[in-house]
Amino acid sequence: MMGGQVYRMERDRARFRDIVRGRLRKDLRKYLSTSELLGRQGKRAISIPIPQIELPRFRFGENDGQGVGQGRGDEGRAADGEGAEGEGAGEAGDQAGQHILEVEVELEELAQMLGSELELPAIQPRGTRQLSTEGGRYTGIRSTGPASLRHFRRTYKRALKRTIAEGAFDPRSPRVIPIPEDGRYRARRTCPRPESSAVIIHMMDVSGSMGREQKDIVRIEAFWIDTWLRSQYQNLEVVYIVHDAVAKIVDQESFFHLRESGGTKISSAYELCLSLIREKYRPENWNIYPFHYSDGDNWSARDTDRCIGLLMDEILPAVNQFCYGQVKSAYGSGQFKKDLDGALGADERVVTAAVNSRDEIAESIRLFLGKGR
User: Fold this and answer.
1) CB-count burial class (<10 Å; 0-12, 13-18, 19+) for 63
2) N or C: which end of the chain has fewer CB within 10 A?
3) Domain boundary at 124, 158, 190, which?
4) What is the DSSP letter of 311?
């Protein structure tokens, strides 16, 4: 009896999870344009609020038949008769009228939903590196280990050789007593295997023209880009570069909240990105994804020419793809995207997108990730 109840409970839980995930898939476009998920992220899962699912509850309604218990209940009155809060007429209360469920979803599953919603192709990794890892089969032998992995035949053979060498073996009364030094144990062999690795290099203009709304848009974009690429690679690293007239590497928190008052020199970020590629993320070992976000202002046409030269001659030959997201602001000219498109628009390794509002985030992500490079 108990087993049947447990089975029904598990079946109901599975059905509820399917309902929740169906609701999440239905509303995924909404989550793609909001930042409410970003503070709920863990290492492998994320907590997602879903307010549209109603929890079962009792409430008074119309009853044209006979009353129940102590008589007909008044609309909005609690079943215990104490006049607790309900849904009936009366003055507004201070309690929420909608139930919000916090549902934990694996980031891997969230990435699958993103790929399905935006029709993203799987990525074929380019760079690989050899990592020494322990295989799954116990084909090796070592002299130490737990008793559960003791290799009896090898241990006995070692003890027999030692006994004979010491002259203590008597064929008429063969006795072999292993000592701890005779112990031999099964071990997994360590062998190199290829592991695809990727690095995302997020670069952002943090000059005065990039305000809070622009940074929120970048933060949302970066979250979904990281989620998708993390599902495509066994090893992923993320680097954050901020720049105004000077570029520097920062942590994630500083990347999304730092604001400077200086001018804008985009080439400083590209030069630092190139330095990282040369010194740490060699293209023969790494799949490299630089993403740059700004409102399109640069301090001079000469520096824009410098940026295009760095991209064309140095960065593009080393990376899988270069993406530029131009976020609209009240102070940005938007000229940099026009210059990039004019000089490098025919190069399939360059993807640019204009993000004029949060509603355009999903389309920009599709453009960035849709080539499967």
Assistant:
1) exposed
2) N
3) 190
4) I
Q: Using CA atoms, how far apart are residues 148 and 234, in angstroms rounded to an integer?
A: 32
Are 231 and 250 in contact by the 8 Å Cβ rule? The answer is: no
pTM: 0.67
Average pLDDT for the chain: 80
pLDDT for the residue 86: 47
Same domain flag for 106 and 153: no
Mark whether 155 and 105 lie in a shared domain.
no
Q: What does the block give as tokens for 88?
A: 């009936």
Residue 41's domain comprises 36-54+99-110
Whether residue 174 is found in the same domain as residue 207: no
Enclosing H/E stretch for 103: strand 101-106
pLDDT in tens, 187-232: 876 655 556 789 999 999 998 888 889 999 999 999 999 999 999 9
Percent with pLDDT over 90 in the chain = 37
Q: Which stretches of the chain are DSSP H helices?
A: 2-26, 28-31, 107-118, 152-165, 212-232, 252-257, 266-279, 301-310, 335-344, 361-369
- What's the structural domain count of the chain? 3
Contact 248, 272 (CB under 8 A): yes
From residue 155, alpha-carbon distances to 54, 170, 330 in Å are 65, 19, 78
Mean pLDDT over 272-287 rounds to 95
pLDDT band at 304 (very low <50, low <70, confident <90, very high): very high
Residues of the chain above pLDDT 70, percent: 69
Strand-pair partners of 248: 242
Our CA angle for 253, 202, 193, nearest 5°, is: 105
The per-residue pLDDT for 269 is 97
Same domain, 216 and 365: yes
Report the alpha-carbon distance of residue 326 to residue 347 in Å, rounded.
18
Q: Does residue 238 surpass a pLDDT of 70? A: yes
Strand-pair partners of 312: none
